[in-house]
Amino acid sequence: MDKKLSNVDVASLTILCYPDPRLRERSTAVEDPTDPAVAALAAKMFELMSAARGVGLAAPQVGVTVRLFVACPTGEPDDRHVYINPRIVSAEGWQTGEEGCLSFPGVCGKIKRNQVATIRATGLDGEEFEAVGEGLAARVFQHEIDHLDGRLLVDRLGSVARLAHRRELKALEERFARAGT
Ligand code: ZN
Hints:
alpha+beta, globular, 181 residues, 5-stranded antiparallel beta sheet, 32% helix, binds zinc ion
């Protein structure tokens, strides 16, 4: 069993907020996508994502630094998918739009992303599949894969947006500092 998954108490997982250092780690590949611990992690992540009204959630956001994210890229409840060891295989065109993140409550800003992104990933059944995302779905794919590399919303925001949200960012930093003491 995957070392990072065998020690996880799934029931106790919560969404971590900036600037938790676990959000900055580069996640490692899931060794066995068909391991029941992976399905249990994904189920809990769907629960947390829905409760927070998000459209995507990456494993490092719940403190498990493996390359997995869950998403409901069109917002339709029957469009939920688990993406294990995902990678972008092609991307084209550009879009600029408002983007937020469940690890940055109260912060959002305009971010430039590819308009179309094609990814390859493995499902819980161990089968590799390809998914083509356009518009919001492409944005979700790129945002979640950023998380797997430790790259965060704040890194993508322009200096104007960062300045506009300096109070919210400071409040998150202070809340994290208080929780750690
Ligand atoms: Zn995010």
